[in-house]
Amino acid sequence: MLIPARLLAQIVAHARRDHPDECCGFVATLDGRAVAVHEATNAARSPYRFEIDGQELYDTTTAIEDAAHDIGAIYHSHTRSEPYPSQTDVNFAANWPGLEWLIVGTGGAEAVVRSYRIDDGRINEVEVVVEDA
User: Which CATH number characterizes residue 127's domain?
Assistant: First the structure.
């Protein structure tokens, strides 16, 4: 996925703002390029996992589709571990095949961002290509 620097900065700011709890949200894409970030509320309010309320999930995915965009990625943060998919992430990804999973590590002084494709339980890191303004 190609993502403009300002959108990546928005995701990192969301992760820092929600720390020590995990943040979560969606990246809308058009032709493989990120065009919008849709922040969600972590209904679990937990530093160990995220959960999106069913109505918010419906409203957000509908808004992305109504704008003629694709859901390119689900993002969330890891507040106490490396930005690598946990078993919970792998299990959740089974419901969202073909998406990227953008994870922001907020445990250190600097945020670390990585992205993965998780298909059939297999985790493959993909490059985060940041587009300058």
Answer: 3.40.140.10
β-pair partners for 78: 105
pTM of the model: 0.95
What is the rounded average pLDDT of the residues 44-72? Answer: 97
- E strand or H helix at 90, and its extent? helix 87-93
Amino acid occupying residue 78: H
- 88-127 as b/e, with b when 16 or more CB fall inside 10 Å? ebbebbeeeeebbbbbbbbbeeebebbbbbbeeeeeeeee
How many residues belong to the chain?
133
CA distance 127 to 67: 26
Give me the number of domains the chain comprises.
Answer: 1
